[in-house]
Amino acid sequence: MANSTTLNVFYLRAFADSMRFKGLVFVLFLAIYLLTLQGNVAIIILTKMDHRLHTPMYFLLRNLSFLDICYTSTTLPQMLVNVLIDNSAISLPACIIQLYVFLSLAASESALLATMAYDRYVAICNPLRYSVIMNKDVCLHMVSGTWVIGGIYGAIHTANTFRLPFCGPRVLNHYFCDIPPLLKISCIDTFPNEVTVIIVGGFLMLGCFLLICGSYVHILFSVFNIPKGRGRSKPFSTCISHLIVVLLFYGSGSFMYMRPKSNLLADKEWLLSLFYTCITPLLNPIIYSLRNKDIQAAFAKLVK
Questions:
Q1: Contacts with 295 (C-beta within 8 Å, 6 or more apart), sequence order
Q2: Which helix (H) or strand (E) holds 9?
Q3: Highest mean pLDDT: which of 6-10, 205-209, 266-270?
Q4: Given a cut of 70, is residue 266 above it in pLDDT?
Q5: Number of C-beta neighbours around residue 89 at 10 A
Q6: With the C-alpha atoms ordered 219, 220, 226, 230, is the resulting torsion angle positive or negative?
Q7: Confidence of residue 276 (pLDDT cuts 50, 70, 90)
Q8: How far apart are the C-alpha atoms of 99 and 71, rounded to whole Å?
Q9: What values do phi and psi take at 186, rounded to 5?
Q10: What is residue 61's predicted lDDT score, i.e. its pLDDT?
Q11: pLDDT at 300
Q12: Strand bridging mode 9-12 / 171-172
């Protein structure tokens, strides 16, 4: 019975060396989680309540905020519980679900960022046909497509990972079930899995990233054709926030999954995950709000 129980449990031990500071760790990540929820919920409420923000750009931004809420809620609550009660165990079904949901949401966010770049391209390079090209049905289909892409991506990697046999005490040097730590405790060679991660993940991320780059190349050429003055500032201000979010998300994600193996951070790889699972969703609403006069005006109107 004990062996059977062990085979159905994983142990998340990322914070095992920090238990003497568990109060500080708990308060820090609880604050990050609550601020992330507050910021993204505020974006959703503001863009929903103010009729001036009922445009494709803010519809996509609202979906990004919803994705970030789900994305963070997949990992942080489990981590907070583990730190608070000093219990790092997670069942096999819970681990499978967590990995699938996390990967699906990450892939959906990647596709959504590409969709947002295309929206900015149409708005700036083809403004007269913007309302026709980016109509309500098109926006709904685009957002639905990002969720479908995410679901397929998550299913491929989850099935490919959990078909492996796992050895030993099943200790993961991480704070949630992710592909790299799961591959490390496999009993067999994981090279085919690693190749699948690079090919499938690279195809998705590279495809979305090329679409984003192509959109912004056209935007730059279009903006440079505008006479110098105020006409240039607004297109740049609406794009710079999105570019910062793209760099944060793709930079941290690709460094975690696409970089070659290294012993330098072998025991601290989970620290890299904190950036795109905690910091990026926390910063997204701040980045969009600081440079967006429409959201600032909607917030001021709501407060009054």
A1: 43, 46, 47, 53, 288, 289
A2: strand 9-12
A3: 205-209
A4: no
A5: 12
A6: positive
A7: confident
A8: 11
A9: -75, 150
A10: 93
A11: 83
A12: parallel
> How many C-beta neighbours within 10 Å does residue 179 have?
22
Task: Return the amino acid letter for 104.
Answer: S
Residue ranges of the domains in the chain? 2-303
Among 42, 166, 167, 154, CA closest to 107: 154
What span, in angstroms and rounded, lies between the C-alpha atoms of 172 and 182?
7
User: In the structure, what pLDDT confidence band is assigned to residue 1 with cuts at 50, 70 and 90?
Assistant: very low
How far apart (Å, rounded) are the C-alpha atoms in residues 78 and 177? 10
For residue 40, give the amino acid letter. Answer: N
DSSP state of 263: S
* Mean pLDDT, all residues of the chain: 87
Write the Ramachandran bin of 194: left for phi over 0, alpha for psi from -120 to 50, otherwise beta.
Answer: alpha
Where does 15-91 have alpha helices with state H?
22-49, 56-85
pLDDT for residue 45: 93
pTM above 0.85, yes or no: yes
pLDDT tens digits for range 63-72 = 999 999 999 9
Question: CA-CA distances (angstroms) from residue 63 to 173, 198, 263, 266?
Answer: 32, 27, 38, 35
State which CATH number among 2.10.109.10, 1.20.1070.10, 3.40.50.620, 3.30.200.20 fits the domain covering 2-303.
Answer: 1.20.1070.10
CA distance 237 to 232: 9
